[in-house]
Design a protein that fits this description.
Order of helices and strands: EEEEHEEEEEEEEHEEEEHEEEEHH
Strand content: 15-25%
Distance between the termini: 143 Å
Shape: rod-shaped
Largest sheet: 2 strands, antiparallel
CATH architecture of one domain: Ribbon
Number of helices: 5
CATH class of one domain: Mainly Beta
Strand order of the largest sheet: 1-2
Structural class: alpha+beta
CATH topology of one domain: Cysteine Rich Protein
Helix content: 10-25%
CATH superfamily of one domain: Cysteine Rich Protein
């Protein structure tokens, strides 16, 4: 009976013949059955409930309903959460082929959505492979396609290309190619085998299939001056089974510097210029001369 019921909102009873509202098994005064936010009656009796409170559509959307990242409309019902945003199920689609992603895997591509099946990398981004065709044979590509200088190729056509591959990183070289040691290199990867600094066009030295900068090559394999005991990085003079740098290739007696055109004699395994040699005792000179002739024979 009406006299046994009370209003859900104000908990007051109803007057005889008073118009009441029944909603979800509860009774309300018609003046009490209003939006909890704006206190206005519900248009066409449509309301939305949250935390046991009823709201009109407008206030419910403003307060609780997420906005779709695609259509910018409020989402009522099922919400798809992805990429830190909310989506209508029907708006959650691949940006390339527009297939619904709701039941499929997907990946992020420069802020947009793409299916994760048959994807390939092109210019640093991920795409469906079937959106592209081989540059040579025009066949539909798959995820195994290869990119060369901004163009895509199927594996068969790619294998027929003369593509330079860097000996260091094993990836294709699209810009300048360095040909050295019987191999090909990226400019930045052709480097000294000891200090690992790129040559960048500077002179290099090869030893046992390895390239070295001038400094490291001489440190590892160069000659040491008999006088100053330092690595000889310039011209090397050999005399009396010894090596000398430019500054220390000199007569052992008068210390006059000599060069490749200077005549010298081996005196006690040291170089002596012709002038000083002629000042030596005759018996010493004869002995050195006989030894020199004997070595020639």
């Amino acid at each position: 009976m009406l006299s046994d019921k009370v209003c859900k909102n104000c908990n007051e009873s109803f007057a005889e013949n008073e118009q009441i509202v029944n909603a979800a098994g509860e009774t309300w005064h018609s003046t009490c059955f209003v939006c909890a936010q704006c206190f206005q009656p519900f248009g066409n009796g449509i309301y939305f409930e949250y935390d046991n409170r009823k709201y009109c559509e407008r206030d419910f959307q403003m307060l609780f309903a997420p906005c779709c990242a695609k259509c910018n409309r409020f989402i009522i019902g099922r919400v798809i959460r992805a990429l830190q945003q909310s989506w209508h199920p029907d708006c959650f689609r691949c940006e390339l082929c527009h297939k619904a992603l709701i039941e499929m895997g997907f990946l992020k591509n420069a802020g947009s959505l793409s299916l994760d099946e048959n994807c390939l990398k092109y210019k640093g981004e991920s795409y469906h492979a079937y959106h592209f065709r081989c540059q040579v044979c025009s066949s539909e590509l798959n995820e195994n396609a290869r990119e060369v200088r901004g163009e895509l190729y199927c594996l068969r056509c790619y294998d027929q290309l003369e593509v330079a591959v860097c000996a260091a990183c094993r990836t294709q070289i699209e810009d300048r190619v360095i040909n050295a040691l019987g191999k090909q290199w990226h400019v930045e990867h052709f480097a000294c085998g000891r200090c690992e600094k790129p040559f960048l066009g500077s002179k290099h030295y090869e030893k046992n299939g390895i390239a070295y900068c001038e400094t490291d090559y001489h440190h590892l394999f160069g000659n040491t001056c008999f006088v100053c005991n330092t690595i000889i990085s310039g011209d090397v003079f050999t005399a009396c089974n010894k090596t000398y740098c430019v500054d220390h290739f000199a007569c052992m007696i008068c210390e006059t510097k000599m060069d490749e055109k200077s005549k010298f004699y081996d005196v006690d395994a040291k170089p002596v210029c012709k002038k000083c040699f002629n000042k030596l005792p005759s018996d010493v000179r004869k002995q050195i001369e006989r030894k020199k002739k004997g070595n020639k024979n």
